[in-house]
């Protein structure tokens, strides 16, 4: 789901920002509104009806092949991709109006170099932050998605343990989730150094 969110939101946000007030921008804004408004569980059911029942392209539920991952990942990642796309678009529009961008253009640098080397790196700070902090939301949303697609994952294990009053499993899942959140925040801090050379850790 994280991979889908990044692969969709990053290019869509860049295209929308570089084509402001044109049809790609309008299409991206429409997608962001629809993507944030549609609940993930409803989208999961619609994906099952379309791709599994009607078209028979993907398996309905269960595990075993990479095809089983497609619909659950789409259901989880679509809402996040809409949010991240809007974020990178707005940040990139703000950054591209700053003085150092005008200076880079005045020096005769190519447009793609100004966009990706100078503009995108500064606009991606908050993007990476929200992406890292979205991990807990994905984990909580996976509980419903795993129930819909009968995926034997951590969310379904958590629900089964609560219903069975298995406190050891509940505590283990909570601790494991906390570790994932901490690792996600650590990864965000490390990526900061790669994106912005002004950031240093002693």
Characterization of the model:
With 202 residues, the chain is an all-alpha fold. It is built from nine helices and no strands. It has helices at residues 2-18, 23-37, 40-54, 67-95, 99-106, 111-133, 135-149, 154-163, 167-195. Helix 4 packs across helix 6. The chain starts with a helix and ends in a 7-residue tail after the last helix.
Q: Please mark out the parts with pLDDT under 50 across 5 or more consecutive residues, or reply none.
A: none
Look at the structure and give the mean pLDDT: 85
- What is the string of helix and strand elements? HHHHHHHHH
Q: Structural class of the secondary elements?
A: mainly alpha
Could you tell me the strand content as a percent range?
Answer: under 5%
- End-to-end separation in angstroms reads 33 Å
Count the E strands. Answer: 0
Query: What about the largest sheet?
Result: none
Name a few traits of the molecule:
flat; about 200 residues
Question: How is the secondary structure organized here?
Answer:
Elements: H1 2-18, H2 23-37, H3 40-54, H4 67-95, H5 99-106, H6 111-133, H7 135-149, H8 154-163, H9 167-195
Structure, briefly:
The chain is mainly alpha-helical. It contains 9 helices and no strands.
